[in-house]
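Incident review: delayed structure delivery

Summary: a single-chain prediction request sat in the queue longer than the usual turnaround. Root cause was a stuck worker, restarted by the on-call engineer. No data loss occurred. The affected request and its eventual output are reproduced below so the record is complete for anyone auditing the incident later.

Affected input:
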Amino acid sequence: MRFSRVFLANLISHETSLFRQRAVLRAGMGYIAQALEDAGVACAVDDMALGFGFGRLRRKIRDFGPDAIGISMFTYRYAEAYAAVARLKKEFGVPVIVGGPHASVFRGKLLEECPSADFCMVREGERSIVKLCRGEDFSKIEGLIYRENSAVRSAPPAVFIDDLDALAFPRYRAFERQNYPLGNSPVSRRVIPLVTSRGCPYECIYCPVNAAIGRKLRCRGADSVVSEISHWRAEGYRNFSVVDDNFTLIKDRVYKICEGIKRAGFSDITLGLPNGIRADKTDRQMLETMYDAGFRYVGIGVESGCDAVLKALKKSEPVAVIDEAIKNAVEIGYYVDLYFLVGSPGETERDVMASIALAAKYPVDKAHYFNLIPYPGTELFDTVAKAGRFLYPPEYYLNNIHSNMNVPVFETKEFPAAARARMLKYAKRAERLRKKELYRRRLASKGLPAFAARAASSVYSYEPVRVIFNDSALLAGIKERMMK
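Output delivered after worker restart:
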């Protein structure tokens, strides 16, 4: 055995524990940990998104005594992750294995830019990391990028795993499940993420996901999914987030999963779809069937309220279809979140207003407006680079927290920087007002007088107050009862 003790770390960190409310169990790292455990490799985990800081990470590594450290890395704030890898390498002196979305996009360049990293694991790593730990020849481990003397070498490309049922689902034994105060669902606090499929056949120009999971959709069987739910239900969990990128793509599979849940008698569970679904891959009958099986929360990736903008994004679905899906979901009784982009190619201020108008058409729970960020490995990034329209160098905006919020990082002829900044601010204001109205409606439905509901919703819609509520088990419990 080359490595018998592996410490896995997620280096996304926040400065204070107030941000713990945004931390969710990471299914990808969970699958890697499970693969290692099943192969007889001792495994420990630290997720810095919980907000405990780098000092605690170092103490946990020291106490565990690994002979290798595995790092899950995202492109966002990658320079900070590189620096952390250098510190860990200097202190512990063991090989560092880097995986995650950033590794799948940057590949050999990652090892060139981060000299303290020893290995880069491209794409799905459940099988490759086990082979690495067992001592197999580097050159024969699919998806592995490694160092040989002073050169960076690549093994054959990784082949995506077709039989997802053959992978053991994560048990999260090495995770601090009790420290994850929120899932990414509005209907519960203790949430388990479910991965029922991998892959995305679409070509949206802004999305880097294909580099990590591929275009081919690969699915678990309904029995496998129900078995995982049954496992967690036996441990006291009743709430689940399906974190697929395309859960509703194959209609028959959705019906089989719903039938399996009902046949098992799991009438006390709730499920959500926080990653969003495509409106053109669902219909009223499917949404009703899902609701009957326990689905209560659905995100819809709208992106824009303008057909021309959706075409430019290669979204391949019309606004009319999206409108119908929103209408159906609201009427059935779902918590509905809408996800929009601001600053798409060809978009204008008028088009952003169309997006805001679409969100206001129905009583959805939330409408999120995201600053469009060109990520390396996407068609959008290549297009902006070729046109020379970046407002900041990628190495700056990818490592600056403010760039992912309200600061435009590129412009187009139709939508210059000043107009983008103005409309981002306007859209964010519309987002806050939507949240405020949501809280007011729910409080009023609980019998709170109108003036009190308005006052309380104004206070709670203020981000720091909401964070404090979510970070406290007692206050969050009160909020959950009042906001349902």
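Verification: Residues 15-21 have pLDDT under 50 and may be disordered.
Action items: add queue-age alerting; document worker restart procedure.
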